[in-house]
Amino acid sequence: xxxxxxxxxxxxxxxxxxxxxxxxxxxxxxxxxxxxxxxxxxxxxxxxxxxxxxxxxxxxxxxxxxxxxxxxxxxxxxxxxxxxxxxxxxxxxxxxxxxxxxxxxxxxxxxxxxxxxxxxxxxxxxxxxxxxxxxxxxxxxxxxxxxxxxxxxxxxxxxxxxxxxxxxxxxxxxxxxxxxxxxxxxxxxxxxxxxxxxxxxxxxxxxxxxxxxxxxxxxxxxxxxxxxxxxxxxxxxxxxxxxxxxxxxxxxxxxxxxxxxxxxxxxxxxxxxxxxxxxxxxxxxxxxxxxxxxxxxxxxxxxxxxxxxxxxx
Length: 313
Ligand code: TXA
Ligand code: MG
What we know:
The chain is an alpha/beta fold. Helices cover 30% and strands 18% of the residues.
């Protein structure tokens, strides 16, 4: 059900409800930072484990600043360059101002300033909003209002912002061992970050970090449709009935190919990825082979990681 900014403000401020909001990355399931009743509902609706903290969305740095303590070095440079936008920064925060349920008991807060004008308007009207991606835990994120409605029902309140421009979640940076490191690959790449940091941040993938994962959500299966994704490198084989591939490639004649987009345009693939994964389920496809012969670097690394995570059962 499409609602206005004013309807959303009333549901959030007067009725302890949650609403879905567009951002430039993916749709979020929003509740006011101070309203722990609504925040509980987010965990229930998503079936999200309580040890998985939420990102807090602010209108700008000035609104976030009172919640932060001991901001790590270069925090202001990062926010100055990438906010508003798809960069989430983890920082120590004031424990009395950020409810424990939001932090999942950690002493840090993940914060971001979305660029989407409707998200901005709602935050300016209601104040800081927590918002995980608007999908049941583990399944592909929602990048269109109809994705939210198909996951949570036609009556679920959604602010309609059309298709999300980027289509992949924000990049998450964490300050560890005296350097910023990437806790989740995202729309902003290490090359863009290097220009501001003066060094290339390393990616703390869950497989490389030995101790507790930095970003608890990364422990879980993610972004996965019901359809089993089987990955292949090298040549496709004759046994492949369904293939997820790229416009400029040739595939065996017997295969039915669904195209992710062009190998010359990773942004288009990012924009479409979750929609295409969701369509596989709508069409009832049980198994599909994904062409992983894709370039290295930049957004391709994020796309590769998302597809790999979506393939884990
Ligand atoms: O693009 C995005 O970031 C979207 C839009 C709606 O803003 N949001 C999003 O939220 O992707 P979610 O909840 O699906 O993913 C947030 C990730 C989770 O993996 C969570 O574990 C991690 O951020 N996270 C949140 N707070 C954290 C903290 N204090 N320390 C470490 N990781 C944190
Ligand atoms: Mg998510």
